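Notes from hallway chat w/ T.B., transcribed later so I don't forget. T.B. wanted the structure written out for a chain they're using in a teaching module, and asked if we could keep both sequence and structure tokens in one place. Agreed to drop them here.
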Amino acid sequence: MQEHYDFHAIEAKWQREWDRQKLYQVTEDQNKPKYYCLEMFPYPSGNLHMGHVRNYSIGDVIARFKSMQGFNVLHPMGWDSFGLPAENAAIKHGIPPAKWTLENIANMKSQLKSMGISYDWDREVASCLPDYYQWTQWLFLQLYKHGLAYKKKAGVNWCPSCATVLANEQVVEGACERCDAPVEKKALEQWFFRITDYAQELLDDLDKLPGWPDKVKTMQENWIGRSEGAEIRFKTEISGEDVPVFTTRADTLFGATYLVLAPEHPLVEDLIKDTEYARPVRKFVQSVRQMTEIARTSTETPKEGMFIGAYVLNPLTQEKIPVWVANYVLFEYGTGAVMGVPAHDERDFAFAKKYNLPIKIVIQPAEGETLELANMQDAYVEDGVMVHSGEFDGTGSAEGRRKVAAALEKKQAGKERITYRLRDWLISRQRYWGAPIPIIYCEHCGEVPVPDRDLPVMLPLEVEFKPTGESPLKYIPEFINTVCPVCGQPAHRETDTMDTFVCSSWYFLRYCDPRNNMEYAAKEKTDYWMDVDQYIGGVEHAILHLMYSRFFMKALNDFGLVGMREPFKNLLTQGMVLKDGAKMSKSKGNVVSPEEIIHKYGADTARLFILFASPPERDLEWSDQGVEGSFRFLRRVWRMAYGFVREEVKEPSLSQGELTPADKELRRLLHGTIKKVTEDIELRFNFNTAISAIMELVNGLYLYKEREDRNPALLGEAIEKMMVLLAPFTPHFAEEVWCELGHTESVHLEPWPEYDRNALIAEAVEVVLQVNGKVRDRLTVPSGLAPQELERTVLAMERAQAAIAGKTLVKVITIPDKLVNIVVK
């Protein structure tokens, strides 16, 4: 064993050896319990960042720990490799997206290997390769065949200069991020997945995920947005056309003084056509369409509206109320129409005040002061008692909601209804670098799914990008032109590609059977490995990715393709890596390169610091001093191991023999550390406190090592056990020391140590002596004494006798191994 800790040589050596042994390759084994540990796969942007290092280090500790506990561990890695950045690079630098992506994958894979992560690289997948997106297309077709994939016209962000659709994140302050042209709203035919069919189950089944953070479940619950209420059908005054609205407060119907339509609502044009309102309303509608959805729904955006010259009739009173359009109502949400009840809704109150619309109080508080319109500064939004509501006067709000809904249903003018904020998932992207949607359009047969035998629909690699950013697929005749698989006549392909979230909604299933050319994954393999036992990733994916993956799993279960309905049993959302109080980013100039840290200190130091600096669910503040401290710790352990190997291991006998008090204290420290590390990893993922316990063990070992009466066998046992405890955190370091201690098999194949309960029992303990509740002394007594025996022992001691001399003993309170309180008067 070399005296110097040469981490460069050690880490390279063991990475080669693990690859040679295929140490982390796994197959299904019915004789072992399985454990599926998964970190969210990355987009291959070119370089790992510290957020990646943290995510993958956390996952690796868990995977290695479970493997050493005897589990058959699946720990795979791949690449979420379709997406817009590759197209932007192609347009900006003239690099084909495939070349840019695959070069980035090679670089990031090399970086991941340099970290020593225990991935089964034989299971690697990349969503941009045909052997993967063939099955993305096949899964699309399963959803299509079951009525869960459909095409409809929908409003999108349209850049007239680039002549293309933009995702919400490409719209910056209402303008195209590429050319700065004002973005318009435009209706285009788009593909959707019918996720709303599963809205209630997605909500209900959150209760079946106790291993998920409450904050993530709350975010999903709010995103699904279940609302119980009533659908109320107002009728237009002239044509009698129904205008449905949804409200959770049917008890306030008698207070509706206006109705608002979304500017995109098709009824707007019908109602203003050939009227004096047509021109100004169309101008207003056009201005609103240029606003983003985020801006329109923001509480900070002023609520703007316009009367359109039309009226609707209240279905219970036949009262005529005016129809407005306003920027805060979106056609995609609810029915695209809302009734304005300004006395009992804050937004409606502000809108009515701004435009001098009537305000009618129809709910009074059940107790307290009576509301007076002249004194109202805000809307009264609580439940109360219905007033000015005809036959419902005096009815409580909760009962009133049911009675009003029943009255509406009797008149065929409404009914009780449950709605969801969740919208169907728009998956169309007018982009090139994505999985082509496997649909063919035929003049004779209409919309035709591509037959399974013709999959994958290959994405052309030799393409020319337009400066406008339009998808090159529109200009490739050999891609577009095809024949109808039904009638054999000329037809054309869909040129939209799929949202990259589709690729990431099932990748965890492909890892179960990644080389299967006949199906997306064999059911017996997904039944063995799924669900994922521990999923790890950023909280920023709490809604979209996690919601979409849950939807996929439920749909595939309904199709008989998988045996479970939830993909991820346990979820850990790690915090961000910060520097100087801010998230690391190039724009802030506070990025720390993992490659630099690994080159200067080694991967094990980088891993140790990032696991020690903070609990995984909290943000981590980067510290150069902290990294240096982690490096010093490893060198300190190395020197201890080096000294033992050089001085002790050649002794003829390492029998433990009779243990001295110092030996017993070391064993107590060792087994206490095993207990602490085991529980911190398994129960709490408190890697920082687990590492801290190992550091305390190192301190104890150094003190013990200096004793002349040290037991070499016991010291060797403690160092070996410490290497096993360190193995999940610093895998190369532990492997090298383990090898130098004379072992021929990998430390990562060593069973996780169990602690000896008997070793944890101290022979003597310090108890606090109190008199009338005040601390008077500390006494050393044999450990494990029963309360009465502890009382007798302490009372017989000279210091206790002195403390109570001349006083009357009232009673003695004892807490074994901790405290004796003598009450006197």
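Follow-up for T.B.: The chain is about 35% helix and 20% strand. Might be a good example for the class.
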